[in-house]
Amino acid sequence: MTPGRARVLIEGMDETLRAADRDRDDVAQILREQYAEGRLTMEEYDERSTAAIHAKTLGELRALTADLPAPAEPARPAWSRSRMRWIAVAGVVATVAVLAGAAFAGHFLLAFPTWLIVLIIVRHSRSRRFPYAGGQRTGRG
User: What is the spatial distance between Cα 94 and Cα 81, in angstroms, rounded to a whole number?
Assistant: First the structure.
């Protein structure tokens, strides 16, 4: 369920239209999230989720979520995938240039910090830990 779809279900729905299975599932998902955040007790969650399953119209679904806040938008990446790709390409080109220069000059051991940086980049790119604006990072540290 996308947050935009859930927001439409809560705010801008025609209350007389018949509810589809997807609408019921979306409202049930909203109720699960609100229960997990502690806004609903177990009894309220059971009561509302049962009512969501048996709801006939969108108005009945709206009544189940009317007193709950709208679902939060997911955190967006600070950088787009294409920008991250270009940063990675620039890093590889710079690494190759430093290593080639060190090899050409005969001081290959002086390129050790570059190898360390490459290993760190590879480790972080495999764990897919990219910066997120306003969100928390997953994983260790």
Answer: 20
List helix spans (H) across the chain: 3-11, 21-36, 42-54, 58-65, 81-105, 112-127
Give the number of residues written for the chain: 141
pLDDT in tens, the chain (141 residues): 455 455 445 556 678 888 899 989 999 999 999 999 999 999 999 999 999 999 999 889 889 988 888 777 767 777 777 888 888 888 888 877 777 777 777 766 666 676 677 777 777 766 655 454 444 555 544
How far is C-alpha 91 from the geometric centre of its chain's CA atoms? 26
pTM value is 0.48
